[in-house]
Amino acid sequence: MDKIVVENLKYKYPLTDKLVLNDISFKIEKGQFIGIIGQNGAGKSTLCQAITGLVPLFFKGAYGGRVLVDGIEVAKSNISDISLKVGMVFQNPFTQVTGSKLTVYEEVAFGLENIGLNREEMKNRIDEALNLLGIYRFKDRNPFDLSGGQMQRLAIAGIIAMQPDVIILDEPTSQLDPQGSEEVFKAVWDLKKRGITIIMVEHKMEKIAEYSDKVLLMHDGKVIDFDTPEKIFSRDDLMQYGVIEPAYTRICKAFDIKDSGLYPVTLDRACEMVVKYNEHN
Amino acid sequence: MSIIEINNLHFSYTKDEEILKGINLIFDEKSTAIIGQNGAGKTTFVKLLKGLLKPTWGDVIIDGKNTKEYTVANLAPTIGLVFQNPNDQIFKNNVLSEVMFGPLNIGMDESKAKDSALKALKMVGLEEKINDNPYDLTLSERKLISIASIVAMNTKIIILDEPTIAQDYISKEKIKDIILKLKSQGKLVITITHDMDFVAETFERTLVFCEGRVLLDGKTDYVFMQDEELKKAHLEPPYAAQLCRKLNSDKIYITVEEFIKANKR
Ligand SMILES: Nc1ncnc2c1ncn2[C@@H]1O[C@H](COP(=O)(O)OP(=O)(O)OP(=O)(O)O)[C@@H](O)[C@H]1O
Ligand SMILES: Nc1ncnc2c1ncn2[C@@H]1O[C@H](COP(=O)(O)OP(=O)(O)O)[C@@H](O)[C@H]1O
Ligand SMILES: [Mg+2]
Ligand SMILES: [Mg+2]
């Protein structure tokens, strides 16, 4: 069965007249890693919120169509039920961190308190998540005394500790150093291997290309394409949607290095194909 | 004369941990990127330049003024800082008044401040949102407003702390153009970022911070060839350079454009 089904979804924020989601339909299978790309204002974050049910349960406004998670319609559920199943790391970590907790440890514990875990299990999960994100040594620190990147790591740790079935990450690595960013992609990839469904919004096309099973290209509230990274980044009209190919793809496009009509999108594949091209020319 | 001079700078927030461990630097008019791992001390360092924090030891001299002897207000006409988190900076409920606040605060008259604010908003592409409430705008737009607010003050030194957070390709190009334009006006632009390709495409000089010290300092293409040090600082070379390395090329190009240009025949 499909894990997530979005059918003819339409949405307009209150007090504005623009359809920020304009007839969106797609399906995601359990355990897939889906990348969402598109220019600023395309509707990526709003779509994520519609999958968590925040749209329309928290953000009111005109809503049409359906979003189903495990066959259950989110708009007809309540937020606390959905949040056990679908966790979301928000675009801005500064707003995700509640500020009501005194320490980094308590901040992560906050999300877990509603799940009804015993103390032991809770402590294990928190320690594991903090270690995974490399911030265990700050566990007694006030979250607001962290650097920006450390705070972003905390926001991700908080969701991973909850172990939901579906994890949505909205530009989760924008403030991470390059190695930290790679570590987050690897950690998320491990979760996917364990059957967790991943949806990630990112402007880092090289990473999206490397890790996604499929990429959803959005523009102006619509789905332009939903396909493999090779197919998406081989399109010749990406610029029209304010999107640029991964650096490796850009280089191969400049020399028309392709295979069965598709350009390489990862470092390894680009390297292979450039070597072959050099042998023949 | 050097615009900024840093002598043996040390800084700690608390007794148990020293954050900056002896930094000596001189900044001239070269556009400069600061890169380094999370927690390396980059934001702390630029807050010291702005005078928001004062050295625990050592001196920061901004355009001839030692920050220990001047208030933030004294220094504000010379040095502007765009914060990493726009929510720390934005507090007005109207975009135009937000952007006019800085210029008015350093003594520009009303009409000059408005003129300067409108120009800056146009530069970042938000001229149509002047009457909006910043809190209704998206993160990328709030970030652009905070950039406009500092640009409008027309200071000699402009520091951008992670300006490309949440920005798509088009806005990143716009920010790059703004940096080049400010540089052509003779300003010193210092930018913290984790986007290595953006650094390679935009800055003449690059500093690598690592655990409170400056690990590397030099021309950007030189810095991006020091693979060992970059690794130590939790960094990576730009993507084009990674491809060059993997291909065992003799020459390392740090931008896609250079790679393509050099290999076209
Ligand atoms: N108010 C504070 N109190 C105590 N420690 C702090 C405070 N602010 C920052 N720190 C610590 O100082 C160190 C340097 O922080 P800083 O914000 O300068 O890092 P940064 O290099 O800008 O990192 P990032 O890339 O994540 O933004 C970090 O380890 C951070 O946890
Ligand atoms: N709370 C809100 N109220 C009104 N309009 C909003 C709100 N949040 C986002 N929008 C608008 O909805 C559109 C899509 O925004 P968003 O989903 O944040 O896009 P993206 O994540 O792709 O940048 C934009 O035009 C944005 O200005
Ligand atoms: Mg968004
Ligand atoms: Mg910082």
Automatic annotation (TrEMBL), chain A:
Topology of this chain in the membrane: Peripheral membrane protein
GO cellular component: ATP-binding cassette (ABC) transporter complex
Pfam families registered for this protein in UniProt: ABC_tran (PF00005)
Keywords, comma-separated and alphabetical: ATP-binding, Cell membrane, Membrane, Nucleotide-binding, Translocase, Transport
Domain of life of the source: Bacteria
Chain ranges of the ABC transporter domain: 4-245
InterPro entries xref list: AAA+_ATPase, ABC_transporter-like_ATP-bd, ABC_transporter-like_CS, ABC_transpr_CbiO/EcfA_su, ECF_ABC_transporter_ATP-bd, P-loop_NTPase
SUPFAM superfamilies: P-loop containing nucleoside triphosphate hydrolases
Organism for this UniProt entry: Caloramator quimbayensis
Subcellular compartments: Cell membrane
Cross-referenced PROSITE patterns: ABC_TRANSPORTER_1, ABC_TRANSPORTER_2
GO molecular function, one term: ATPase-coupled transmembrane transporter activity
Name of the protein in its database record: Energy-coupling factor transport system ATP-binding protein
Major localization listed first in the record, in broad terms: membrane
Family affiliation: Belongs to the ABC transporter superfamily.
UniProtKB/TrEMBL annotation, chain B:
GO molecular function terms attached to this record: ATP binding; ATP hydrolysis activity; ATPase-coupled transmembrane transporter activity
Domain ABC transporter: 4-236
Keyword Translocase set for record: yes
Localization annotation: Cell membrane
Annotated keywords: ATP-binding, Cell membrane, Membrane, Nucleotide-binding, Translocase, Transport
This protein's GO CC annotations: ATP-binding cassette (ABC) transporter complex
SMART domains linked: AAA
PROSITE patterns assigned: ABC_TRANSPORTER_2
Membrane topology note: Peripheral membrane protein
Family, as annotated: Belongs to the ABC transporter superfamily.
Name of the protein: Energy-coupling factor transport system ATP-binding protein
